[in-house]
Amino acid sequence: MTDTNKPGTRITKLLELAQSDPALLQQLERFRRTLVVMFSDIQGSTAYFEKHGDAAGLFMVHRCNDIIRRQVEKHGGTVVKTIGDGTMATFPEPKSAVEAAIEIQTDLVELDAARAESERIALRIGMHYGTGLVRTNDVFGDVVNMASRVESVAAPGQIVVSAEIYEQVRECSFTIRELGRFTLKGKTGERTLFRVLWNQIQGTPTDCSVEVPVPVATAPNFRLQLVPKDGSAGAEYPVQSELAIGVSTEGTLVVSDDLHSTSLSLCARVFVQFRSLFVEERSSVGEGIFIRLASPYVLEHQDIFLVGQQVFRYEEKPEASSALTDLGAGLAEIDLAATDAAELVRTDAAGNPTGRYPLNAAEIQIGRTRGTYVFPDDNLMSRAHVRISQRGEDFLLEDVGSRNGTFVKVRGNTPLPLGSALLIAGQLLRVIH
Question: Do both 62 and 202 map to the same domain?
């Protein structure tokens, strides 16, 4: 966010405001460092806990964290903190950070080798190189936020790095592939991210090269498939250029290639742009358009998401009025960590608040019977459904393998990768080709 009056402006905004005060700037220089921030997160841990119990799950997380800590320290880094089943680490320079990430992934593959396929776990790793504010045992600033957003893009088993890291290691003996261009929260325009390919057998980098996917001449053959409530495959609708999705006067869902049809109340437009599929909400009435989470999602102020039958709105709290006073008192004496900086507001169908749930811990879980906040009467909610992790100044929403999924309301033009699902007027549509 760029407006100083908007909620959620915490330490990064304080640092920006300090630019106009030479005395504060001088204080800041004592704490500034250029470094790599790396986030990692275990995929599949919740299912592991469910199947094997808390004791076995905690032992598994402990073994993973031991591997991470050993390799981070071996390559000159520091594990700053553990966040649930994830970690945050820092390195003085990018080459050692990439080397550590490769060896971490390799060691975890060896650890997994003795497990059955259904019991294996995978690690997502993301990292960024930039300037941060270092205070004793923690790091603050945009370098942390950016690393968190890069990690949220990574798939299980992937190492994803920012362009800033790629530029520093492009001449090293790593195999790196351009992953694509992504819109990241708080960043203008799109950012190119890269995937580090690692050798699962030897755990060593291969010959130096950068592989960029070769463009395909023909556009992908996207289709929307209706998914009935029994989970079977329903009618399919090819997307040549764009499709209109709306509700007829009889209340049924209609998919049409006529965006100007007067026989339906238009809800959404699905269209192809730059060989990718997007959805755009076109109606200001009704429940809105929701997309099912397939990977961690960085929450933004006023985001709305569905967990079972519960509707939540994410709200960042206004900055405390004492913050600037505290900053002026001297950075060495204040706690820069944001605490209780956001909350979830549960709403009814009309958007009226029915409950408030503070996000005041590094990790918050929501479920029917397991979690920080539980809803035992919600039969559509899984026992453990979602978790919300605090990473820097971000809060990441992640489905933990629920039966019915977690859905986030669409805002603006939203990409629709293959396999993603849309919830429109109570109907589920899946993207296939």
Answer: yes
Residues 178 and 256 in one domain: no
What CATH number corresponds to the domain at position 348? 2.60.200
Cα separation, 331 vs 329, in Å, equals: 7
Between helix 45-52 and helix 54-74 the angle, nearest 10°, is 140
By C-alpha distance, which of 85, 156, 155 is closest to 120?
156
Please indicate, yes or no, whether residues 319 and 344 belong to a single structural domain of this protein.
Answer: yes
Sequence-distant (6+) residues with CB within 8 A of 376 are 368, 369
Nearest Cα neighbor of 267 from 243, 241, 250 is 243
- Contact (Cβ atoms closer than 8 angstroms) between residue 210 and residue 176: yes
Q: Answer with the residue of higher pLDDT: 383 or 1.
A: 383
283-339 pLDDT per residue, tens: 755 678 999 988 788 898 999 999 999 999 999 876 543 443 444 444 444 444 445
CB atoms within 10 A of CB 279: 25
Coil, strand, or helix at residue 70? helix
Provide the domain count of the chain: 3
